[in-house]
Amino acid sequence: MSVNLQKGQKISLEKEAGGALSRVTMGLGWDVAKSKGFFGFGGGKGEAVDLDASVVLFDESNRPVDVVWFRQLKSRDGSITHTGDNRTGAGDGDDEQIVVDLNAVPPSVKSLVFTVNSFTGQNFSTVANAFCRIINAGNQQEIARYDLSVQGTHTAQIMAKLYRHNGEWKMHAIGENGSGRTFDDLMPQIVPHL
Question: Whole-model pTM above 0.70?
Fold first, then answer.
């Protein structure tokens, strides 16, 4: 059974998955909010929104050592893969996915911070039904889900962090709003969460 995470909540991935995990997928999904139309009534679907999922890898000293995003779809060590860029949010389910081979992540990497940015600059008032979720890639079972649908004027969000603690992987739902077109713009906000 999947856990619906609240902002700030931390969980043990293995405990929630019911056993050892070797690969997980971070899924990001969203829809375009319906426009309000003339005088706030009616309207239809708004214009496409290009949200981008990224993951930044940090070492024990909280220094970034690599990043996986739409311009680099695989980590240099090969442990993390981005499945590709969705520029519209169209369709059901995950719009973008990042697959993490937990056993292949180098021991020097302490944490993985997942972000979402509106590359086209639209703010989250144009986004509906946004979520991130972590899936056991071995059996495709959802472990945890975090609702990102806080509409507002922000253009980015630090979604969550996967981190090693006492030999196991844990997840922290961060949910901090920010601004910027790429993960790089969020780096000053990410550091306090490491």
Answer: yes
Q: pLDDT tens digits, residue range 63-95?
A: 999 999 999 999 999 999 999 866 555 566 788
CATH architecture of residue range(s) 3-34+48-193:
Sandwich (2.60)
Q: Which two tokens stand for residue 88?
A: 């519209």
Burial class, 131, CB count within 10 angstroms (exposed 0-12 / middle 13-18 / buried 19+) = middle
CA–CA separation, 194 vs 158, rounded Å? 12
Query: In this structure, what is the dihedral angle of CA atoms 68, 29, 148, 48, given to the nearest 10 degrees?
Result: 100
* β-strands 23-32, 127-136 pairing: antiparallel
Cα separation, 35 vs 33, in Å, equals: 6
Alpha carbon distance, N-terminus to C-terminus of the chain: 28
Of residues 46 and 137, which shows the higher confidence score?
137
DSSP string, 131-178: EEEEEETTTTEEEEEEE----SS-SEEEEEEEEEETTEEEEEEEEEEE
pLDDT at 129 over 60: yes
Signed CA dihedral, 187, 105, 98, 67: sign only: positive
Distance from C-alpha of 50 to C-alpha of 29, rounded to nearest angstrom: 11
Q: What CA–CA distances, in Å, run from 88 to 64, 80, 184?
A: 29, 23, 22
Pairing of strands 141-147, 3-5: parallel
